[in-house]
Fold this protein.
Amino acid sequence: MLSGKVSLVTGASRGIGKAVAIKLASLGSDVAVVYHGNSEKAEETVRNIRESFGVKAIAYKADVSSYEETKELVKKIKEDFSHVDILVNNAGIVKDGLLAMMSEESFDSVIDTNLKGTFNMIRHVCPLMIRAKGGRIINISSVSAIIGNPGQANYSASKAGVIGLTKTAAKELAAKNITVNAVAPGFIKTDMTENIGEDNPLIQMIPLRRFGEVEEVAEAVAFLASSSYITGVVLKVDGGIAM
Ligand code: NAD
């Protein structure tokens, strides 16, 4: 379904990003696996993709919060793959704390990675998509952006910013046949949520009464990557928590 396409997935060494990279590869897409810290895990994802699906996959180290690094990153990916058809902005961090005690550093670093990082990637990739006369951009937001979450002022602000960015980008780029959508996961089992136990009272707030799996988010991303007439939406993958 996606053969001949090139996908760029940020934060793809683990968690949701890894599942997305694997899902897109399983549909035939080549994949640029962007990671920040763990090169061993990124190389493992790349090996897994190549061996399982026979597509091209390369790992790239970059900090999405850096405008210059992401510019260089996209230049390298263009040299290696020649084009980018699907961009998935998944890299993200949390630095939770109550608003009354939150440090400036916690606020700034979360905004820089989650929101500015998404801008940086779109900024450098969209000229390639405009020249190619088409593309799909999928940004990973969060239900925290929609319903708020105590302790996550920085995170929910960054992810709400991602929704605003998604909608404006969708309107600006529609004329170029580029769709831009967001996926808003609820509680998904990854390193990011490892401190929340399965016996947490939060479970009672989820109508489906369980945390989500990374593959369930990857399915939503793959759906938007394959859709041609959906743009500017925020697709919740949250077991019903934010309805
Ligand atoms: P994770 O912590 O397992 O993975 C995050 C990934 O982002 C890692 O690969 C990390 O290396 C990468 N990353 C972090 N900072 C980076 C930077 N500056 N440059 C490049 N890469 C960087 O988290 P996850 O749970 O897989 O989350 C993936 C995305 O989904 C995030 O944007 C997160 O906010 C969002 N999300 C997660 C949940 C959840 O419940 N897990 C819920 C809603 C939204």
